[in-house]
Automatic annotation (TrEMBL):
Protein name, UniProt field: Chaperone protein HtpG
Annotated positions binding ATP: 32, 36, 77, 82, 97-98, 120-125, 171, 318
Keyword annotations of the record: ATP-binding, Chaperone, Cytoplasm, Nucleotide-binding, Stress response
InterPro entries named among the record's database cross-references: HATPase_C_sf, Heat_shock_protein_90_CS, HSP90_C, Hsp90_fam, Hsp90_N, Ribosomal_Su5_D2-typ_SF
Species this protein is from: Hymenobacter oligotrophus
SUPFAM superfamilies: ATPase domain of HSP90 chaperone/DNA topoisomerase II/histidine kinase, Ribosomal protein S5 domain 2-like
Family note: Belongs to the heat shock protein 90 family.
PROSITE patterns: HSP90
PANTHER family: HEAT SHOCK PROTEIN 90 FAMILY MEMBER
NCBIfam families: PRK05218.1
GO molecular function: ATP binding; ATP hydrolysis activity; ATP-dependent protein folding chaperone; unfolded protein binding
């Protein structure tokens, strides 16, 4: 028996579209053909379990081979096979309607239009024509008494279908590789594709005599079957050069959607961008993509691991996700599971959680900033760390400072440093008043501080060097100045003249006598805007990066230096004022270059004069 005919697609133009436009990456032809072979094998297993196939199944595997001389790639399986009638049904009739409209959408390579056909058409087999000038199918059905069939097509709409000899059940797909696709005749190239897409398929895939896949990857097993060693070993297989993960979450849900997978918390430093695209998405153990931004919340893109779901809609080439209700539900489910896991660790192993905070706080803060629901879940295990190294929940810390760090308006004032060493003098001044100081030196902290001020009732944050210590937390009682109003005016004028800098605004304040003679501060608002701009907040914050710093210079009226400046002659007063100002600059790390050289020289002169 031999038959010739036309494939039922109602147009002469479908194959060029498949070949050139439909698939974004030609290498996926092998994924599609191997996936089809695995499906055929799985169907035979199912029929055997149901008692509908009672023959000898034998060794069930998929074999991929290449013959460079003959220029062929062959994908073989021992699955259910097809009769000639089934080939006509499944191969010749490309499964879609409205083909003319389809062609109209694609003739101009309209990517947006292509995305509209996601998940609608079974065109996987036809991806073979992206690399082949001719494709042959040799197939024999599992059904008794059926003849084997050979189908051949050269990429036009014409095909040939005839009976043939094939001793065993199953299907061989033979690709005669086109001249412009020589790369796919290289063993190394094919092995790379198979290892990328077929590494975890549920049926053994053999290539050049070696099985290249794990048929039962870790996420397909029950957590109760697995040890910590199993999880860390699998992680190292996925990411060979990474440090051990901190912990992991095993996902396994079958309602209202199907989702399995393992998400690992890696040790994350400050490189927010470099860590992304480490989660691999699978569909029934077939690798799809590592771009999972629609499935996984933005802040969890820093996690590593695998997700597997047949319920995530994909386009015809399985290369792009399509946002829909299931994707949103999965996104929300993952967020909840991560929050639940963190809450559980905090509740059961707080000391271990605190030890890991340096590595996981970036996840938590990013999540709280970007997702209100995550904030609501995380507010009970989000931590604040003091410079003494102690950890507190938000409520615990507010209770700690309630007695001493509430200002005259009833606001809790939480003091922080972004660089304990550079701001050491200010930290010490705060500690001498009995104040506690927090450490906020992470890349997200400028934004995180703003979020906490919105969320925590009657709470404000101030950097320790944002003002003089008496003004950081203003109390009802205020220090009295030993200077008259006239003396304060004269002192202000002397310092303004000695400093002579329009960005340095001099004011005279009544501070404690033991406080520094001059204190330079950058207002909290300006500091925070600049910090936000440095870590990239986009939008309106960019303007603060170009503004010159505008500092407040607080001259301590009650420090003995003030009296010395007032009593000295004009030249000596100017020198003393400049020296006190430079000392304040030095404390802020702002004294550099020629100004530093002059300060050292002046210091030597003053020492010699004494």
């Amino acid at each position: 028996m031999q038959e010739t005919g036309s494939i039922s697609i109602h147009t002469e133009n479908i194959f060029p579209i498949i070949k050139k436009f439909l698939y974004s990456d030609h290498e996926i032809f092998l994924r599609e053909l191997v996936s089809n072979a695995v499906d055929a094998t799985q169907k035979l297993k199912s029929l055997a379990q149901l008692g509908e196939y009672q023959g000898e199944a034998g060794e069930l595997k998929v074999t991929v081979s290449v013959d460079k001389e003959k220029r062929t790639i062959t994908v073989s399986d021992r699955g259910i096979g097809m009769t000639a009638e089934e080939i006509k049904k499944y191969i010749n009739q490309i499964a879609f309607s409205g083909a003319t409209e389809f062609v109209e959408k694609y003739k101009d390579k309209d990517a947006a239009a292509k995305d509209q056909i996601i998940g609608q058409f079974g065109l996987g087999f036809y991806s073979a024509f992206m690399v082949a000038k001719e494709v042959e199918i040799f197939s024999k059905s599992y059904k008794e008494g059926t003849e084997a069939a050979r189908w051949v097509c050269d990429g036009s709409t014409e095909f040939t279908l005839e009976t043939t000899e094939k001793p065993e059940r199953g299907t061989d797909v033979v690709l005669h590789v086109a001249e412009d696709s020589d790369e796919f005749l290289e063993e190394a190239r094919l092995r790379g594709i198979l290892e990328k897409y077929c590494r975890f398929l549920p049926v053994e895939i053999e290539f050049e005599g070696n099985v290249i896949n794990q048929t039962q990857p870790l996420w397909t097993k029950q957590p109760s079957e697995l040890t910590d060693e199993d999880y860390t070993k699998f992680y190292q297989e996925l990411y060979p050069f990474s440090e051990k993960p901190l912990f992991w979450i095993h996902l396994n849900v079958d309602y209202p959607f199907n989702l399995t997978g393992i998400l690992y918390f890696p040790k994350v430093k400050d490189e927010l961008q470099l860590q992304r695209n480490k989660i691999q998405l699978y569909s029934r153990q077939v690798f799809i993509t590592d771009e999972v931004k629609d499935v996984v919340p933005e802040f969890l893109m820093l996690l590593h691991g695998v997700l597997d779901s047949p319920d995530i809609p994909l386009n015809v080439s399985r290369s792009f996700l399509q946002a829909d209700a299931n994707v949103r539900k999965i996104n929300q489910y993952i967020t909840k599971k991560v929050a639940d896991k963190l809450a559980e660790i905090f509740r059961k192993e707080r000391s271990s959680f605190e030890e890991k905070w340096g590595d996981i706080n970036l996840f938590v803060k990013y999540g709280m900033l970007s997702d209100d629901k995550f904030y609501d879940r995380a507010k009970d295990f989000g931590l604040l760390q003091s410079i003494a190294g102690k950890f507190y929940t938000f409520n615990e810390y507010k209770e700690l400072v309630q007695a001493n760090q509430v200002d005259k308006n009833g606001q809790s004032v939480l003091l922080y440093t972004t660089d304990e060493e550079a701001q050491h003098a200010y930290v010490v001044a705060a500690q001498e008043r009995g104040y506690d100081v927090l450490n906020f030196n992470g890349p997200l902290d400028p934004h995180f501080i703003g979020l906490l001020e919105q969320k925590l009732e009657k709470t404000t944050f101030k950097r320790v060097d944002a003002d003089t210590i008496s003004k950081l937390i203003e109390k009802e009682e205020t220090a009295e100045s030993v200077l008259s109003d006239e003396e304060k005016t004269k002192l202000q004028e002397l310092f303004a003249k000695a400093i002579s800098n329009e960005h340095m605004h001099v004011q005279v304040e009544a501070l404690a006598p033991q406080d520094a003679p001059v204190i330079i501060t950058l207002p909290e608002f300006m500091r925070r805007m600049k910090d936000m701009q440095r870590v990239g907040s986009g939008g309106g914050m960019a303007m603060f990066g170009s503004l010159p710093d505008s500092y407040t210079v607080s001259v301590n009226a009650n420090n003995p230096v003030a009296q010395r400046v007032l009593k000295a002659d004009e030249e000596a007063a100017t020198k003393l004022a400049k020296q006190a100002f430079d000392l304040a600059l030095l404390a802020q790390g702002l004294l550099k270059g020629e100004a530093l050289t002059q300060f050292v020289k002046r210091s030597a002169e003053l020492l010699a004069a004494e």
